[in-house]
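Need a sequence for this fold. Nothing fancy.
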């Protein structure tokens, strides 16, 4: 597979990154791990980061702050619900912080248990980084054109 120099849509991009909140608290990092690999222009990463990478070159370092609207979205209080504890009767030792996939009108929806009290369980469907302004330090490790199979499947093929 040929390596190309510039990040463009329909290219496979490999990056190493460190993700922190704007106050410096570490949220995630690829340090000591394989790079994050995705197809540009296919919504595989948050919009603000993808937009910042377009046009950059292999080896570039990017230091960017992304507002919630361009990351995991703002918190929408109306999306947080309390449901009866009986909905979790099959779960042993239900605790705050547990994540589940509940069935919704749009299919399985990931939720996090945020509160348990008086026979009610508060669930939050937001991504854990929703509502946060994020700071990324990114190193572009590799860029190549995506294969036809990758474009058809919508994800990177690993060898």
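Here you go.
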């Amino acid at each position: 597979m040929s390596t190309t120099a510039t990040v463009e849509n329909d290219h496979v991009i490999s990056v190493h990154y460190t993700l922190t909140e704007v106050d410096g608290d570490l949220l995630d990092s690829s340090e000591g791990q394989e790079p994050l690999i995705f197809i540009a222009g296919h919504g595989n990463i948050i919009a603000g980061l993808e937009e910042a990478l377009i046009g950059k070159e292999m080896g570039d370092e990017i230091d960017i702050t992304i507002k919630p609207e361009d990351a995991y979205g703002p918190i929408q209080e109306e999306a947080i619900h309390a449901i009866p504890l009986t909905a979790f009767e099959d779960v042993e030792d239900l605790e705050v912080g547990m994540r589940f996939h509940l069935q919704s009108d749009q299919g399985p929806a990931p939720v996090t248990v945020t509160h348990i009290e008086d026979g009610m369980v508060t669930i939050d469907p937001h991504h854990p980084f929703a509502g946060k302004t994020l700071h990324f330090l990114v190193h572009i490790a590799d860029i190549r054109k995506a294969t036809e199979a990758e474009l058809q499947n919508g994800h990177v093929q690993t060898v």
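For context: The beta strands are 11-21, 26-29, 36-39, 61-66, 81-84, 99-104, 107-117, 120-124, 134-145.
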